[in-house]
Amino acid sequence: MPDKHLHIISFNIPYPPNYGGVIDVYYKLKALHSAGIKIHLHCFEYGRTVDKELDEFCEKIYFYKRKTGIFSAIGLKPYIVASRKSEDLVRNLLKDNHPILFEGLHSCYYLDDDRLKNRIKIYRESNIEHRYYFNLSHSEKNLWNKIYFFIAGMKLKYYQKILIHADLMLVVSLEDVAYLTKIFPENKIVFLPSFHANERLEINEGPGKYALYHGNLSVPENEFTASFLIEKIFNDISVPLKIAGLHPSKRLIKLASSYNNVEIISNPVEEEMKQLIKNAQLNVLLTFQATGLKLKLLNALFNGRYCLVNNNMIAGTGLEKLCVVSDSADLLKQDVIKLFNSYFDNAELTLREEVLNENYSNKKNAITLIDNVF
Question: What kind and span of H or E run contains 251?
């Protein structure tokens, strides 16, 4: 059989895989390579250095400078899209006739380009972007940032119609599948959860020592959630809470310092984060928007003991039977106390393994992708 080749346009260099979107891209590359796909990777670079680690998975890698600045912000196209354009990218895509996978709306500048009209084009969804930005606007405290995120959300909602040009949409949650099917009833839309770092369950025996919340703390929604946990849930109980993630603000660090049972862990490396998850008695994972799939939930289920979540966190994932679900502050507080003093039963691991292997196996999901594209 002839080799199968695939172009992948990534919004950033997907190494190291240390935040949501690039985690999906990196482990997708790894899984597709293992399945024999020849990958031609195109990366828009900003804020990250080129790394040889990606050479192992790719036939060829191209890099393009992201066009940041005011000129990319002017006009109807969203900034995250307009800043990722390059005629060099188009020229490289036109060297052959292989299918093209666009990672996120960020990478879709050329999705409707006439020069690519006869190509198989795949949109990889990781979020309903305009909802994400509207939520950032809601969570943001700075007025100008609030206005910026709202305008960005409006642009993204308008720009979303470009997805009609995708021959296939690969969507990370059932909730988002339902939304996109309603908007684009003629398009082929397939449920394909995020690729991730976990190949098997690695859960420690015995009790854990603390509750853990983790995420990119520079994202307004995550800072809002961390503050909510400190002020509303762990404010008057003795359960220790560790909050770990990238770039916590001075405000959050100051808030945490007011409580004896709260600790901020700034910028943990990948292995340190994994150990924090494994040593926690419970991972508390909340979100205030029900789009996409939160990779931190998968990491907690593969490596941690109890997972305490709200309904938004598990919407469209099929993972509700593996978690304790609470939505109100009072119920969350009660469940934190209850779970912290519970013994994690190894019998629960069988169900967890069964559910995760059904929909969240990188190997299976790579086969699903290949079958739908080729």
Answer: helix 250-257
CATH 3.40.50.2000-classified regions of the chain: 211-358
Compute the distance between CA of residue 310 and CA of residue 179 in angstroms, rounded to an integer: 20
On the CB side of 53, CA atoms within 13 Å amount to: 12
Q: Report the amino acid identity of residue 48.
A: R
pTM of the model: 0.87
Q: Which CATH class is domain 5-166?
A: alpha beta
Contact present, 126 and 194 (Cβ < 8 Å): yes
Q: Choose among 266, 233, 239, 271: nearest CA to 252.
A: 266
Q: What is the DSSP string of 69-104?
A: SHHHHSSSS-HHHHTS--HHHHHHHTTS---EEEET
CA distances from 296 to 86, 299, 301 (A): 33, 5, 9
Q: CATH for 211-358, among 3.40.50.2000, 1.10.1740.10, 3.40.50.1240, 3.40.50.80?
A: 3.40.50.2000
Q: What is the largest CA-CA distance in the chain?
A: 64
pLDDT digits (tens, 9 = 90+) for 335-372: 999 999 999 887 788 889 999 998 899 999 999 999 99
Half-sphere exposure of 112 (CA within 13 A, CB side): 9
Chain segment 118-158, per-residue pLDDT in tens: 999 999 998 899 998 998 888 788 899 899 999 999 999 99
